[in-house]
Structure to design on (575 residues):
């Protein structure tokens, strides 16, 4: 019980824009393909730390004008409007700040022979 | 007030004919089980289409993949729930040998749970949802599911209270299981703004329903079945049941920790989750020992009980291998660090959710719907074939997912290759998965057909 109570003291308060982004994430059912904290679909990349890899301009642009998803020839990634996309990226930036105890594992450099 | 009284009308119990006929609750439980089996038939079709969509590019589909998967997961949670409701009523009356408190309430509960379940599936088909994995429907609909569970809990508690001196452990275990189902779903009807709270609460359904609440209700069913079919003496079954109940609650509760590793919780869950998960394996081992002893000494003659036993043994088999041993391997934090969020989880989820819980619910539903009839030899063989198809389909698809998952772990997590590059390598295994899914679907439809036939044959019995 005590441990449950200690755990419930959450370290990270949610900024308002991120909260709006969370509802965008849920409304569009992103979790069916992507994962956050490794939970979700297995069809697309984990987005827990995506904002560390890509700039937010790139991500917003990706969501507003989505490209064709390989290996499909026509099917595109679902599109969002500008405001939703910005909120969503804000949410992902917030998720990036949550400490995940070293997950995902530090990746070794792929050695290109 | 009059309306209130009518609502809780106890139903007429004709003592003289009650023994010969059936309890009203047992008749009502038939519709729960029938609906559960129908939804299960739908489940495998939905799942197969989803599996195909992953391997065939640009496959046209009226429902986009993300909502198709949501329906698949909603079905996975709700069809066992509906089946369990029927099983609990049936086996509670069988154990106590008396009518439930209010059959009328049980009928109402059926309509409530069906209305809201179908509501969840249809809103998801219309692309309206809440986007939380396994609980994708909009929260208000889960309030409805909660209401049906509150009705069930109230009805069952009142049933036990009517004659306090005459409560059997199996009946009490099932009642506690249903109460837990309700308590654990309740917080999930609230919308949380913090993703950590969101994730943590979600696992009260995803993990605790399965590992604690359903474990208790299935244990009650297994205990009753073992006693009725003479596989084990009552004293031994009840000894197992007490231990199972205690371990399910303790192990289940803190075993949730193995889902809390990487979601922003303190590191204490790494230790707690992995150690407590060890406890969860013990009751399954004891069940196996009891079954083995029973099978060696008793010979079951009735084909109906044999077919139920095949389904139950499948459940026990997957409970040990796919759920417990594989699960235990995955809870080791150093392994989980790499395997987390890969197809391994998906393989494990199929084995644990359908393998152990699904088969147990199917066994109960078949047993209930065939009450009062014996399958023909052809029918029995068809049933056995269906069980074989279900098992081989499940094993093929889960193994394919596990192999895909281990490759994904190695290339993506260990070597750090790009996700999409790795995803291309996995394609052949996902095709094998779709093939396994097709075999599974075949078995599913065959079994549902057999159960439908049994339902038809015993219909006049109502």
């Amino acid at each position: 019980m005590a441990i449950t109570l200690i755990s419930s003291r959450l370290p990270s308060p949610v900024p308002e824009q991120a909260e709006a982004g969370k509802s965008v994430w849920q409304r569009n059912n992103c979790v069916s393909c992507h994962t956050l904290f490794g939970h979700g679909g297995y069809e697309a990349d984990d987005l827990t730390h995506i904002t560390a890899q890509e700039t937010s301009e790139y991500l917003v642009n990706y969501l507003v004008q989505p490209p064709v998803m390989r290996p499909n020839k026509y099917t595109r990634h679902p599109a969002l409007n500008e405001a939703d996309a910005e909120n969503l990226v804000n949410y992902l930036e917030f998720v990036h700040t949550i400490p995940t105890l070293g997950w995902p594992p530090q990746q070794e450099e792929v050695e290109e022979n | 007030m009059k309306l209130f009284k009518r609502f809780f009308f106890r139903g007429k119990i004709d003592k003289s004919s009650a023994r010969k006929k059936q309890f009203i609750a047992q008749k009502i439980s038939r519709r729960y089980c029938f609906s559960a089996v129908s939804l299960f038939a739908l489940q495998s079709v939905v799942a197969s289409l989803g599996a195909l969509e992953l391997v065939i590019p640009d496959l046209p589909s009226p429902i986009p993949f993300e909502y198709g998967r949501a329906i698949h997961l909603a079905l996975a949670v709700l069809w066992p729930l509906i089946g369990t409701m029927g099983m609990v009523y049936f086996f509670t009356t069988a154990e106590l040998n008396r009518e439930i408190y209010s059959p009328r309430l049980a009928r109402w509960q059926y309509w409530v749970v069906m209305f809201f379940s179908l509501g969840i599936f249809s809103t998801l088909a219309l692309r309206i949802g809440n986007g939380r994995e396994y609980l994708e429907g909009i929260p208000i609909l889960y309030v409805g599911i909660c209401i049906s569970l509150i009705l069930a809990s109230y009805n069952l508690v009142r049933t036990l209270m009517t004659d306090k001196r005459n409560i059997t452990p199996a009946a009490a275990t099932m009642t506690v299981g249903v109460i837990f189902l309700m308590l654990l779903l309740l917080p999930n009807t609230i919308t949380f703004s913090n993703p950590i709270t969101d994730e943590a609460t979600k696992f009260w359904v995803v993990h605790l329903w399965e590992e604690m609440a359903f474990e208790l209700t299935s244990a009650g069913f297994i205990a009753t079945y073992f006693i009725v079919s003479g596989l084990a003496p009552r004293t031994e079954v009840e000894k197992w049941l007490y231990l199972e109940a205690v371990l399910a609650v303790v192990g289940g509760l803190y075993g949730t920790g193995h889902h809390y590793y990487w979601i922003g919780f303190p590191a204490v869950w790494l230790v707690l989750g992995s150690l407590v998960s060890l406890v969860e394996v013990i009751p399954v081992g004891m069940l196996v020992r009891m079954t083995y002893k029973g099978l060696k000494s008793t010979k079951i003659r009735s084909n109906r009980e044999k077919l139920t036993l095949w389904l139950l043994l499948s459940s026990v088999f997957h409970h040990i291998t796919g759920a417990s041993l594989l699960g235990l391997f995955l809870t080791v934090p150093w392994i989980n660090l790499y395997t987390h969020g890969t197809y391994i989880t998906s393989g494990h989820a199929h084995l644990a959710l359908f393998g152990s819980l699904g088969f147990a619910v199917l066994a109960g539903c078949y047993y209930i719907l065939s009450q009062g009839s014996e399958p023909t030899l052809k029918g029995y063989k068809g049933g056995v074939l269906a069980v074989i198809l279900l098992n081989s389909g499940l094993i093929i698809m889960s193994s394919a997912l596990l192999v895909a998952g281990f490759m994904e772990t190695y290339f993506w997590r260990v070597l750090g290759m790009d996700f999409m590059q790795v995803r291309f390598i996995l394609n052949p295994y996902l095709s094998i998965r779709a093939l396994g899914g097709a075999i599974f679907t075949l078995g599913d439809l065959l079994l549902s057909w057999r159960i439908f036939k049994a339902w038809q044959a015993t219909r006049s019995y109502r």
In short: Chain B has one domain: 19-461.
